[in-house]
Amino acid sequence: MLSSTWGSPSGTVQLPKEVAPYTVNIDQGQLDRTQTLLKLSPIPGECYENSLPDGSRKLGLRREWLVEAKRVWEEEFSWRAVESQINSFPNFTASVPVNEQGEQINVQFLGIFSQNPNAVPVVFLHGWPGSILEFLPLFSLLREKYPDPAWLPFHLIAPSLPGFGFSDQFPNDRNYGMEDVAFVVDSLMVGTLGLKNYVVQGGDIGSRIARVLGNRCEQCSAVLVNYSPVPPPESFDFTTLSEKDKRGLERGDWFRNDGSAYAMMAASRPGTLGLALSASPLALLAWIGEKYLDWTDPLSFTQDQTLPSGARYSRKLMNEIIASVALYWLTGKIHTSFYSYREAFALNGRAPPSSNAQFPVMAPKKVGMMWFPYEVIPTPRAWIEKYSNLVFWREEEVGGHFAQLEQPEVLAKGLEDFIKVLQEK
């Protein structure tokens, strides 16, 4: 494994005293308690809903998958291996303001700094139920391609969002939302790290924050997203849609009608949900595992294992799911990670208080879009163009909601090509 000194600050980037090196190291006692809780957590018996005869998940997670995932977490999964992977990159924590009054929280981030004086700063923003783990395959590919930091054309910054992972949660004094997250991210990039004219890349919640940054923050020069649900332009002619767009809209209908109950719960009763999911690692595994299984493209992960029923599943995806769940569990952050849903989803027939359409990113700012067919709400190009100065568009053949995790090679190529477009225009 390459040393975590790869991409450490030197030369072009000097970190202020507010920034300190950080090492992920969960207490062994906490790991032992998690194993005990897993062993003592029962899985209920089969019923129609969790063992549908047709083999589908249309009524929720299948019991047999959870039985196997529980066994893998207990017997095969290594959190220390996950820590080693995270710590193979330079990690930092910084005290960052959350408001104009200067109230501070600690934000943990991966910071990989080029020695190239012309390096472009890029900040990567995860979503829910994501984390900085989504970006490790992408960063690993870039480390292999640019083993000498002098060659790296980017500064790569990936923060754990407030209330996620190893970052502090927002204060309890009021409701915080996406504009507050954007303030924290911009403060980190510009005020703390001194990285101006930066590019932001994100999916899911990260794409929403990216739009706020592009719309509101002067030093955010460009936005590259892989998720951008926006409404159709007025009087849009639906007969002009391609077959790929029609399939995308059908998937969006599935998500809204059959796959978004979790979001309504997170938007309307996050207190109850957070308390319930914080009581059991197995409950958290079921809740988050369902989302990864439903939102990833089956073509992204080889179905290489067989369950007792004969159903096939991907062990690699299962391992990624367990790592993600373990991160939420061991940091105790699931109950502080739901705040974005109060803004993103309509309740009781009301429009959501903020949406991507409310934060258009227009000239002179520039927008790139990477379109993946298995995204939960794939959106036609003509719709996105209404709210974006779209200078880069790429349709991929494989990939879903966790594109950075599913298709890191594609994301790496897309990022490099988007930066080239920005430098040409």
What does this structure look like?
With 425 residues, the protein is α/β, with parallel strands linked by helices. It folds into 2 domains: 227 residues, 3-Layer(aba) Sandwich (Rossmann fold), CATH 3.40.50.1820; 146 residues, no CATH class. Helices cover 39% and strands 14% of the residues. The protein is built from 15 helices and 11 strands. The strands form 2 sheets. Strands 1-2-3-5-4-6-7-10-11 form a 9-stranded mixed sheet, with helices on both faces. It has a two-stranded antiparallel sheet with strand order 8-9. Helix 4 packs across helix 15 and helix 5 packs across helix 6. 42% of the residues are buried.
Count of helical segments? 15
How many domain units?
2
CATH topology of the largest domain: Rossmann fold
Topology pattern, helix = H, strand = E: EHHHEEEHEHEHEHHHHEEHHEHEHH
Determine the N-to-C terminus distance: 38 Å
Sheet/helix structural class: alpha/beta
**CATH architecture label of the largest domain:** 3-Layer(aba) Sandwich
Largest sheet at a glance? 9 strands, mixed
- Weakly predicted, low-confidence segments: none
**Rg, Å, rounded:** 21 Å
Quote the average pLDDT: 93
Name the helicity range. 25-40%
Number of strands: 11
Strand order of the largest sheet: 1-2-3-5-4-6-7-10-11
What is the CATH class of the largest domain?
A: Alpha Beta
CATH homologous superfamily descriptor of the largest domain: Alpha/Beta hydrolase fold, catalytic domain
The geometry reads as globular
Pfam families: EHN (PF06441)
Protein name: Epoxide hydrolase N-terminal domain-containing protein
Family: Belongs to the peptidase S33 family.
Domain Epoxide hydrolase N-terminal: 20-135
